[in-house]
Design goal:
This protein has 377 residues and is α+β, with helices and mostly antiparallel strands. It contains ten helices and 19 strands. Bound molecules: flavin-adenine dinucleotide (FAD).
Length: 377
């Protein structure tokens, strides 16, 4: 691999969520001409919940010229495991910081010029054509010197880069999530859950929760939000039935806030009372718009082809138990940006594949091991 004088490229990014924004913010700062094409017409701000802070996220924010204070966190000082009756089974001192997805999104979004972030622009019909990549969006035909597929678990860029193995595997359980203002949580429930990461594991169930900042990054007590996560066994037939009831295609695997049919949301609250410790059942009952994410396994056999590459969840969907999906996307973007500073696109892509594929495989394996250790299947 020969180092070159730094040069700049015209880069297209498919997907304007965290992975696409990490890449776009870093490459824009390094002087590349970057356009982000995001399928959603309305923007993504309301879709996220909580994230566990990892070093790569702050390294990438700094490299994009953003300070840590742009993404405030809430720190918890211990981990507890509850039993079904609500007693503390296990307690361990552990300091950890939790971030809010929306605040991280806003910070990264502010690092990409508005006229370079295109909403309602699903990337389709990707064709690798020598040193160019051609594709189509609702805005017309485009081509770029580099296409970054940051279009998530249902990536279409993946179908051009790794057509030999582009499909996710649903693993047989799903996560319900909720995000509620801390002010609606009663004092007795807050006394159990706040200030710590709380967990519960029972047959077919695994729940956890923690505080994150408020919608505008507020961290003062009274203005934060409580993020709960409830993994549940859900076979693929039951998942398809739920998707169809929600008016989605039977092969969809997620429902955003407000998309869960009211009877399914009501039944979730009833089952929480039946299956979870009282404090977790209480916070589940306070969320009127729970959202669902089917848990998927996928690692691409390759991350690059022609002048296109995969990054973030498009490259590998790691199980949420790892809490490393966003950090992996940040790491992908950091390595890519560093390589493009010194090397040609071809050499950078080769090195990116060699560096990031083993990392994706390791994190994915770790996630499978964490999932297999839970009674979810
Ligand atoms: C609610 C929630 C909580 C999470 N919690 C954590 C956590 O605690 N820790 C953690 O590390 N990770 C967490 N994750 C996962 C993490 O956010 C992702 O793994 C990480 O952000 C990588 O995302 P991504 O940008 O690669 O993919 P995604 O966030 O899935 O984004 C893909 C984007 O591409 C767009 N898109 C899809 N198809 C196209 C197309 N053809 N053209 C253009 N755009 C397209 C989609 O609309 C979407 O905006 C969480 C995810 C969710 C949803």
């Amino acid at each position: 691999m020969t180092a070159l004088r730094p040069s700049t490229h015209d880069v297209a990014v498919a997907g304007g969520s965290l992975g696409g924004l990490f890449a776009a913010a870093l490459l824009h700062r390094n002087g590349h001409r970057v356009d982000v094409f995001e399928e959603s017409a309305r923007g993504l701000r309301t879709r996220g919940a909580g994230l566990v802070a990892q070093n790569e996220i702050f390294t990438a924010l700094a490299a994009a010229g953003l300070s840590d204070s742009a993404v405030p966190g809430v720190t918890s000082t211990e981990r507890i495991t509850l039993d079904r009756a609500g007693g503390v089974q296990y307690r361990q001192q552990a300091t950890q910081t939790q971030l809010s997805w929306d605040r991280l999104y806003d910070a990264l979004r502010s690092a990409v010029p508005d006229d370079r972030y295109h909403l309602g622009a699903a990337v389709d019909d990707v064709r690798l054509d020598g040193d160019r990549v051609r594709f189509r969006t609702a805005q017309g035909d485009h081509d770029a010197g580099l296409l970054i597929g940051a279009d998530g678990a249902q990536s279409r860029v993946r179908r051009a880069v790794a057509p030999e193995h582009a499909d996710n595997r649903y693993v047989g359980y799903a996560i319900w999530r909720g995000l509620i203002p801390e002010s609606v949580v009663t004092a007795d429930v807050a006394a159990v859950l706040f200030g710590r990461m709380a967990f519960y594991t029972g047959p077919g169930e695994h729940a956890l929760g923690y505080l994150i900042p408020g919608p505008d990054g507020e961290t003062a007590p009274g203005s934060r939000r409580y993020n709960w996560v409830w993994y549940r066994r859900l076979d693929s037939d039951a998942l398809s039935t739920l998707m169809q009831a929600a008016g989605r295609s039977s092969d969809s695997t997620s429902l955003g806030p407000g998309q869960t049919p009211p009877d399914a949301a009501a039944s979730l609250v009833e089952q929480a009372l039946d299956q979870l410790p009282p404090a977790f059942a209480a916070v589940v009952g306070l969320e009127s718009r729970p959202f669902l994410q089917g848990v998927l396994d996928y690692v691409a056999p390759r991350l690059t082809r022609g002048h296109a590459l995969l990054l973030g969840d498009a490259a590998a969907v790691v199980r949420p138990h790892t809490a490393m999906g966003a950090a992996k996307a940040a790491g992908d973007a950091l390595d890519l940006a560093a390589l493009l500073q010194d090397f040609s696109i071809e050499d950078s892509l080769r090195a990116y594949n060699s560096a990031r594929l083993p990392i994706a495989r390791d994190i994915a394996r770790y996630g499978v091991a964490l999932g297999d250790a839970l009674p979810l299947r």
